[in-house]
Amino acid sequence: MATRGVRDGPWTDLDAELVGRATRDAARLARESARHSPGTVVLGRPLAELEALMAELGEPRYRAAQLRTAVLSGARALEEVATLPRALRARLREAGVRTGRSRVHGRRQAADGTIKLLLQLADGRVVESVGIPSRDGRRLTACVSSQVGCPMRCTFCATGKGGFARNLLPHEIVDQVLAVGEAVHASPDGPRRVSHVVFMGMGEPLLNLPSVVEALRLLREELGLGGRALTLSTVGVPGALRQLAARRLQATLAVSLHAPTQELRERIVPSARAYPLDALMHDCDRYFAYDWVKGCRVVWL
């Protein structure tokens, strides 16, 4: 169950414990994901693991590529993978294999073409994703969530008022990008390709670093998005920027300051008490100094 909603008042030890819970949850999910049997979730699985799964079932290797391509092309359930024989689909279901795609629980579209999606995860929880097309129709930005809820208690953000439930898995993040592309159509012929992804939806991405880093890898390798097309937004998590730098991740870093002084920032972003503005700016400078970050930016919001 999610924790209680946002409380008024200063950042406390209880808040710090909730943030610690999110970090521990991220590490636990990463360990459990590594222990899962190959092919349990198709989305995000390496092709070699899917091929191994097919071999166990006595099927030719090319069936793995057919399955993977179908899921990336919009198949939300095994029943929709028309390239696989019906008998094989039934055996995959019996083996506990699922696509990893979430159900579209709700959809709203604004006059400018922006679309908000509510996606229902396998455990029944719901996250928000937004598709933002450019006016000229050349770009489509997917704004994705990294957590169900958020423990950071920023006063301007509605997400934290519902409390924190859990971190998202890598495939649950990538699925949002696919869903946005399927929801925003450039023409009646098919889904429009997402050109940019911003982690500015529900949750604090740097509290779910293992899943976020793996999702970014999948976005690059599976969907062909470059580092300049990927943006991580954060209000600042102590130590997280150093961890991010150690992973040599190429993505634009958007740091949400929201105030020019530490005193004002603590009122707007209570967690700033645990991460003073001077320390945050120092870590941003160190992150930007890495040679491999060149070509990507650090921006302040």
From TrEMBL:
PANTHER family: 23S RRNA METHYLTRANSFERASE, RADICAL SAM CORE DOMAIN-CONTAINING PROTEIN. It comes from the Eukaryota. InterPro entries: Aldolase_TIM, Methyltransferase_A, rRNA_lsu_MTrfase_RlmN/Cfr, rSAM, rSAM_sf. CDD domains: Radical_SAM. One of its GO terms (biological process) is rRNA base methylation. Its cofactor is [4Fe-4S] cluster. Residues 136-301 form the Radical SAM core domain. GO terms for molecular function: 4 iron, 4 sulfur cluster binding; metal ion binding; RNA methyltransferase activity. GO terms for cellular component: cytoplasm. Keywords: 4Fe-4S, Cytoplasm, Iron, Iron-sulfur, Metal-binding, Methyltransferase, S-adenosyl-L-methionine, Transferase. This is Radical SAM core domain-containing protein. The keyword Metal-binding applies. Gene3D superfamilies: 1.10.150.530, Aldolase class I.
